[in-house]
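Running this now, will post back.
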Amino acid sequence: MSREQLDKLLSIFERQPPLGSMTLEQERANLDEGGARFKVPQDVTKEAVDADGVPGEFLVAPGASDDKAVLYLHGGGYAIGPIKSHRYLMQNVSRHAGARTLGIDYRLAPENPFPAAIEDATKAYRWLLARGFSADKIAIAGDSAGGGLTLATLVNLR
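Update: finished.
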């Protein structure tokens, strides 16, 4: 992360209201706004997909292999965070992993209780297999709650 990006991130954090003072809808809008500040470079392609009923988006950096995929599961406490708030992070995953990165808009709590997110992530993984990606060329990764969802998905798949 460059100094300019760090300064931008710190300024966003400094303007945040105290924890617990926003409604869930405000938290969701806040994360969307924060994510929109980090623009995906123009050399990265975006492709909207329907991963067996789960809305998703491939982000593909130049040089990414067509036969490797990362299923990226965003953080947000299982309650906030669509793909658009994590696009910049996902394009970095594609760039550094040399793989197509698939982010999904898994169903969020509390509207969709457990195990909805795990079901969606499992569907997306199986969709990648059905599209011809070999299991040994698919990684699953995530940040924060997405890391927990990664582990839960892997347990569900075994």
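Strands lie at 45-51, 54-60, 65-73, 99-104, 138-142. More later if anyone needs it.
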